[in-house]
Amino acid sequence: MSRRACLSAVSLVALSLATTAQAWAAPAAPAAPPAAVDGDTEVSKVVVTAAPYAVSADNLTASVAIVDRTELDLAPPTGLGDLLSGMPGVRSTAFGAGASRPVVRGLAGPRVQVLTNGVGQIDASALSPDHQVATDPGEAERIEVLRGPAALAYGGSAIGGVINIIDNRIASRAPEGGYSGRLLASGATGDDSYAVSGAIHAAVGPLVLTLDGLKRQADDYKIPVYAESRRLLAAEGETADGGGGKLANTAVELEAIGAGVSYIGADGFIGVSVKTTDTTYGVPGHAHEDGGEDPVTIGLTQTRIDLRGEYDKGFGPFAKLRVSAGHADYEHTEFEGKAVGTRFTSDGYEGRLELVQAERGGWKGAVGVQALRRNFDAQGDEAYVPKTKITEFGAFTQQRVEKAGWGYEGGLRIDYRELDSLKGQADFTNLSGSVGVFARPSDAVFFGIALSRNSRAPTEAELFAEGPHAATRGFEIGDPKLSEEIAWSVEATAHYSGERLSADLHLFTARYDGFIDLRPTGAEEDGLAVYRNVQTKADFRGFEVETSYKAWHKDDQSLTLEASGDFVRGATDLGPPARIPSYALSGRAVYEARYWSARFEARRVGEQDRVAQGELATDGYTTLNASVAWKPRGDGQLRLFLDGHNLTDEEIREHASFLKDLAPSAGRTVRAGLAWRF
Length: 678
Prior knowledge:
single chain; mainly beta; five-stranded mixed sheet
């Protein structure tokens, strides 16, 4: 680490500690009334990803969404991107059934950080769209989604957003009654799939033991149309020969097994867990350029060890100390038939320590440090990125002051990132900061606005890539001279929570200096179009909106009408960026009763004809989804459910996907299952 970066990080932490200590030493001011939260607000509405201290979702200036275990039970067993893609502001890279990563406000890959319990994946999923995220959504107790820049808390890789997959493998409190657990089993048409998952937690004295497992398997899924899009066929001067059937090479098989143990005492907890993931999946439309006809499949394995703890007994100006760390050994192997084509490996560790300040007079805050060491390597025909050792260190502080009816917040982070590869060495020092103000004129209304500056260092692929990349169908070339990518962004937020009506609106704009973009050069290499990483100015702007209206209520029955929408537009000095999704609108009717619940959804995604060089336009689509669940005990602990997705068997092509013109999403699928919590 450079001396300058080290001194800057130490200075930041020291300044934060000194300010905190000074405030602690001063007489405590009378506490201002806390920002109002509806009396029925549950703990699940408190967001743990946005800040180290507790803030409820309707008191945040950031755009946040939460998917809890109840929703996960009824969601189709699928990859992370596909699971979240119906959420406002989020789409999927949709690289077949096996690999999907979230696209947040038009940004993907290294700009969207995927975490497990606040710590990075230490995998290679951000490197290429055909690489699966090493943590499956079926392992989660809840998933938190931060739309927009979150580099302040998690570093430059979160410049576009954060997805935090939170499991309960390391328990933070003992289960009531001494044990608890869950079981989920389902089967579906369309791909003849099944999925089984479960977890159990048992208290043994001060220890809590956890065991969880997941298995899902699916054959090639059915599609309603010819695999190649009409636009691609027209561009190639061809016509479709038939249509529909199964999309070849979309089968998936995944297993994950984990165990954890926690010691829970009066002053906090500490625990350790281990998990293994083993998955094999096909890659549709992934033809290698050597003329071979063998299908391409990917085998992914990862062994991960995590440590997490919290000390709750106050000391000095601090109320809590949190620590989390993870070590992972990851291997991703691409097979051409039975032969090994390319092998990607990633091993390393990441750690995070947070000191949460004791709240005084409405002032909340925290300081922390984060470190990462990762070794990446690729060997084989598509080893287009050289062996690289990545080292990162960051220090940050976040502060928030809540007064009667209003408040303000801010933060600062400094990061150092070093990349040492066979092709060269590069290091970067990044500075990120934000300020925001908010007002709550009444218990039901919240307004906020935030300004942030976020900095991201280039990745190993953006710097050092040189070679064919079949997933993107191009010959990619990096640039070792790339500098930091800097984004200035403004976000305005409005929340309304009434007795029957609630609404959430986010307006955002971001200006990028040094936006790193993979652009075609017009040349060819090995029969592939050549793409080079270049830097340009870029602008992104858009909105997300969600509303909910309780239209009818009687005894234990209710009917709620929901609507949501999103829009993002990107522009660079070189023209529109690639794979920016079009608008989306969704409408839902949700019926709830003691023994029954039902949901009907209609979703419209618009046509995208504002495209980058070499990109084809994408047709819009409308889908209908429905589900019904029976709760035989009337308490929701046991649910038998039936759901249908894409009931009209619509042709679905996601503009954010590299495969949109070669592999549409699945057609009509009907699934039945049971979910039991005990």
